[in-house]
């Protein structure tokens, strides 16, 4: 716990569930700051703005589920306690390095045990045994991304994305003829995207292979996408991309 108080984020689409967790947390820790989110989209924004130390995270929610929320964070700086009415998610929850897994309805005593464990947890390095390794082992990849569209947070299906292009300190996502700025680096995206569907074609570009219409020949090849984008292919990536495309290279 810090000198300024423990910061907790409660994510659950049920108001009664949020109020129960809030009440129990304040009974156990008087000096606490609590924020609430009713769905996955709100949770992503809250984590970035509030920077909680502990997140109580429901699993089944509208839009993004709890696991998909975690997919948006490469460097996790908070402890996780999952709460859910379904016990079939327990193994996956602990694969995400959760401190505990509360099965609804849980008692005050069971909550206290989980809460104490989260307060005492030394968060692991994500590079050592965190989300990256979990995704690799389970072969579970991103299928949705949360983006900001003129002040409104929306979900984009990954299979509708044409390309990710790094520009300055941002990553530009191209989908449906529109561009969106996201704060995930290409390196983090490459770790989380299905390699069967996406390919790194340049140090600054990842494309969805099915979005490629053609690839030019020569020392400085380019790919032309169905959406109209033309993107450079580096010499280092040229050979592997040709192998993936096989057919339709002009």
Question: Tags for this entry?
Answer:
elongated; 250 residues; 9 helices; 5-stranded parallel beta sheet; Rossmann fold; OB fold (Dihydrolipoamide Acetyltransferase, E2P); 2 domains; 5-stranded antiparallel beta sheet; alpha/beta
Low-confidence stretches: 122-139
Query: What's the CATH topology name of the largest domain?
Result: Rossmann fold
**Structural class of the secondary elements?**
alpha/beta
Number of strands: 15
Number of helices: 9
End-to-end separation in angstroms reads 61 Å
Shape assignment: elongated
Under CATH, the homologous superfamily of the largest domain reads Response regulator
Mean pLDDT score: 84
CATH architecture of the largest domain: 3-Layer(aba) Sandwich
Give a description of the structure.
The protein is an alpha/beta fold and 250 residues long. It contains 9 helices and 15 strands. The protein has a 5-stranded parallel sheet with strand order 2-1-3-4-5, with helices on both faces. Helix 1 (15-28) crosses helix 5 (108-120). The longest helix is centred in the first third of the chain and has 14 residues, at 15-28. It is elongated and about 70 Å long. The termini are far apart.
